[in-house]
Every structure is written in C-alpha cells, then in structure tokens.
Amino acid sequence: MRKNFFIILFLIIAVSAFSQNLRDIQVFVPPVTASAEAEANGLRAGDIVFFYRQLSFEVVSQLYTLVRSQAASDYILKGTILLESETKARCIICNATKDEIQNHRQGKDGNHEFISQEINGNLHFFNTTGDISYYHTEIDIYSKVSEDSEKYAFVLELINTKTGKVIGSQHIFYNALDTSIAELLSIIVYNMLSGFPDIIRTNEWRNKWLYLEAAVLWLPSIYQGQEKSINWLNFGLKVLVDFHPVNFFSIATGFQFKQDWVVTGSGENKVDHRDLIMEIPFLIKFVFKPPANVLLEPYGGISINQSLIGRTKPALSSWFLGFQVGVKAGPGMITIDPRFAMDIGKSHLTELDTQYTRASIQIGIGYKYGFILRKNKKEY
C-alpha cells in the first residue's frame, strides 16, 4: 500500500503539471444544414454528413476540445451548404483588386474573412484580413468541377459563443466531393482557429455541476482498548463523486480504501493485526469561492465501514469533519484535505475477544476535475 501511495501521488503531480500545457479552447460543431435551394438542386445527403464528420475530425486532430453543447463552448464552427448563386454577393471579392480587398478588410472591423475559389484548375485561398500580402495565396489542390452544372458553396462560420458575433467566414465552392475538399477544409479550420489565443479562464474550473476526485491518503490512527496503540503508517486511496446542486452547497459519495493496523500486547507478546477497510462516505459540503484560484469546502459526514480481509470487525459507521482546499491546476484542481474521523461504536478483533475504539487524522492529496458548466455565460 505504501508503494502504491507514492506511485499515485507522483501520477497526480505529473498529470497536473502536464495539463497546464494543454490547449484549452473548446469548440462546438452543430449539425451542418443546407438551404432549400441546394436540396431542390439535388444535393446529396452524404455531403452534409461528410462536412459534419470532417469538421469534427479537424477540431480534434488539431488539438482543440470538441464539446457536445453550445453552452460549454468558446467558439462555434457552423457549416451551411448553399448554391453558388446564393453567395454571389459575397464571392465578388474573389475578383477584386488589392485596394478593394483592403477597403473590404478595413470595413470588416477586424473579422477574419477567408475566400477560396477555383481558378485554372487550382483552388485559390484569399485572406482578407491581416497583412495584405496574404491576399492571394495559392493552394496546390485540384477540385474536379463540372462546367455544365451549378456548384455548391459550403459556408463555414466561426462564431464567438460569448458574444454571438461571427468573427470569421469561409466559402468552399465544389460540385463533387473528393480528397481535395477535405484537405482544403483542414487548412481553413487551422487558419480560422490558430490565430486566436488560448482562453484564460478564471472561474470555470470551480463552477461545474459535477466533480470527480481521486486522492492518496495518510491516516495516522489511535486505537484505544485494553491497551492504547498509535500507528503512523496507515495509508489509503479514495475516489469521490461530488455534485453541486447549488453554487454554495454540495454533496459527495464514493469509495475509500485504507489500511487498519492494530497492535496488541508488548515486547515478545506484541501481535500485529492488519486489515484493509472499505469505507463508503457520505459528505455534506459548504462551498466558498474567494477572489483567487482557490476553492474552500468545509464538510462533515458519516461513512459505512466494511473489512475486506476479515481480521477485524470495524464499527459499522464513523463520523468525520474536514476542510478541503482546492488550488487551480490545469483544467481542474489539486486538493489538500485534512480530516478528523472517529468510529460510532466499538470495533472488534476477530481472533481475540477484544474491543477498541478508533480515531484518526486523515490527510489527503489528490486531483479534482469538473464536468458540465453551471452557467451558460462563462467568465474569463
């Protein structure tokens, strides 16, 4: 158990340090839609599936976090399939001069606008923001387009979830889907997302509905029976699920495994009685969020106790009081959790007709990660 204690403690520290370097931008990809005109023109249902799957794949492969709800996202990548004729007003810039592009760029108030167009068998990529030298960048991708049928336009918009503002858009004109479209879409997603800095989050990590916590424990214990013994080398592990129904209050439960080491006699008559105890704790916590990267949770509760080896018969239940401190580390928090616990009733040694009471000081060090934001409007 001691070896496992230090291994898990090392893993908690390593994972926390690594998580500091993760790109923490969350992107939501809603289902791709098509206009009525595009559907009436014979748009294949597979086109919608293709673009949706490809967008989702690109978000993940480019190391962003793909989320399943708009409320949990920082940006939205919204895809729509139209007929080329429905986008003529926006495509005129493809044939514009440098001065016209510059004026258009200035009029976009800093928005990221990208346009692609097939010219002489090659797809050309137009960036109308940033340095004007990027206004005409060729991409060596060939798109097989029939001259006798109207093209479709896949319109990709980048939306800031917090403001609802469209901050980037891109058109891909095509007739038949092939690998060139997938390659172009990859480049577009990269250009639209890579220019934005990582989100600096202040309070999201401590404003979740649900938390999962894992920790290693040090449990110096006092056993009081016919004789008194103190053991400083009890260790344990715990896994808890913490639910926050309101902002200032939470309830938690889970499993905890800890050593129990009772000593009877002394000298040559000294006998060690070692056991492994499983506890099922039920906690009630009060939650405090000071204006810093800290979460404070004083708590109390009871646990149900069960011996896993059978050398002791612990009291059926125990009560405890504790105070957990969470410090922001990566997307979650490192927790430090001192606790005092005492049995309700007597424990027994199964090999001897001996009763005793147990009390312990428990110090836990772990990592706690939250799921599902409490608020639709996130704080940065």
Descriptive report:
Strands 1, 2, 3, 4, 5, 6, 7, 8 and 9 form a 9-stranded mixed sheet that branches. This protein has an 8-stranded antiparallel β-barrel with strand order 10-13-14-15-16-18-19-21. The chain has 2 domains: 2-15 and 202-373, Porin; 25-194, 3-Layer(aba) Sandwich (Rossmann fold). The chain is an alpha+beta fold and 380 residues long. It is built from 6 helices and 21 strands. A hairpin with a 6-residue loop joins strand 14 and strand 15 (271-286). The protein starts with a helix and ends in a 7-residue tail after the last strand.
Features:
nine-stranded mixed sheet; elongated; 18% helix; Rossmann fold; Porin; 380 residues; alpha+beta; eight-stranded antiparallel beta barrel
Please summarize what this structure is.
18% of the residues lie in helices and 47% in strands. The protein has helices spanning 2-19, 36-40, 45-61, 88-91, 98-107, 179-194; strands spanning 26-28, 33-34, 65-67, 75-83, 112-119, 122-127, 137-139, 152-160, 166-174, 208-218, 221-224, 228-231, 235-246, 249-264, 271-286, 294-307, 312-313, 317-329, 332-344, 347-349, 354-373.
- Shape, per Cα inertia axes: elongated
Number of domains: 2
CATH architecture type of the largest domain: Beta Barrel
> What is the overall number of helices?
6
Radius of gyration: 30 Å
The rounded distance between the terminal residues' Cα atoms is: 42 Å
| Count of beta strands | 21
Segments where pLDDT lies below 50 for 5+ residues?
15-23, 89-98, 100-112, 127-148, 376-380
User: Biggest sheet: strands, sense, closure?
Assistant: 9 strands, mixed
Q: Please, what is the average pLDDT?
A: 77
* Strand content bin: over 45%
Listing every helix as H and every strand as E from the N terminus to the C terminus, the arrangement reads: HEEHHEEHHEEEEEHEEEEEEEEEEEE
Question: Could you say what the CATH topology of the largest domain is called?
Answer: Porin
Reading off the top of the CATH hierarchy, the class of the largest domain is best stated as Mainly Beta
Helix content: 10-25%
- The helix-and-strand class reads alpha+beta
